[in-house]
Specification:
- The structure is a single chain.
- By secondary structure, the chain is α+β, with helices and mostly antiparallel strands.
- It has a domain of 118 residues: OB fold (Dihydrolipoamide Acetyltransferase, E2P), CATH 2.40.50.
């Protein structure tokens, strides 16, 4: 038993020595790469030519801006010219007759028309009366004025239209205008007239005109005679 440890140690030492002898000895020189003979190149089959790189036409086209649509051009419709009828020749019978001109109305017609229109407008109050009193108008050549009105008293015989209360009427007429005596200046007692009347107070422009009044009737309301006719 005492000899085994020594044997084991010896075996270990021997193994180490063998290992050292094998690894530490001179190594044979290794040939360099440049010293190695070049092997001849083996002929290779001709490779097909490389294909040209494919262009991505689809991608390039998608990058371009879209082309705006072109609106179709409208063509104007050509309307055929309407043939114009040739002007018809006027026959002598178709010539227009010259227009007739109406002569202006005479002064007498205008006066009659105005009187008729005035009478129609003032148809409100119409009475028939007989003269009882008249006022005297002096000779115009002796007067310092050329316009005046005259007062005449009537007995009312009938009220034709409108309303009038009383048996007597104090009527007012033009007696003198622009130095000329008017028809009422020659009225006489007993004459009967159809009178269209309205209140004298409605004619303020006559309040400043000279008055010829010999009736002395202050209880009667005077009425202006718009129009009159003899009965």
């Amino acid at each position: 038993m005492s000899q085994r440890p020594g044997l084991i140690v010896g075996l270990i030492v021997a193994a180490i020595a063998c290992a050292l002898a094998a690894g530490c000895g001179p190594k044979p020189p290794q040939p360099m790469a440049q010293d190695l003979p070049m092997a001849p190149a083996k002929p290779t089959a001709a490779s097909p030519p490389a294909a040209a790189p494919a262009t991505n036409v689809g991608m390039e086209a998608s990058k371009l801006p879209p082309t705006p649509p072109v609106a179709p051009q409208k063509t104007a419709a050509v309307t055929p010219a309407t043939p114009q009828p040739s002007p018809a020749k006027a026959s002598p019978a178709s010539k227009a007759a010259p227009a007739k001109t109406t002569p202006p109305p005479s002064k007498s017609q205008s006066t009659a028309t105005k009187q008729t229109a005035t009478a129609a407008k003032s148809e409100g109050t119409v009475v028939i009366g007989t003269i009882e009193l008249v006022s005297k108008i002096p000779d115009p050549s002796t007067l310092p004025y050329d316009t005046c009105v005259t007062f005449i008293k009537y007995k009312v015989n009938k009220v034709v239209s409108g309303s009038y209360d009383g048996d007597s009427l104090l009527a007012v007429f033009w007696g003198l205008r622009k130095g000329k005596l008017q028809p009422a200046a020659s009225f006489r007692v007993g004459q009967t007239h159809r009178l269209t009347i309205e209140p004298f107070s409605e004619h303020e422009e006559l309040a400043r005109v000279m008055q010829a009044d010999d009736t002395n009737e202050y209880s009667l309301t005077p009425y202006w005679v718009v129009s009159y006719t003899a009965e």
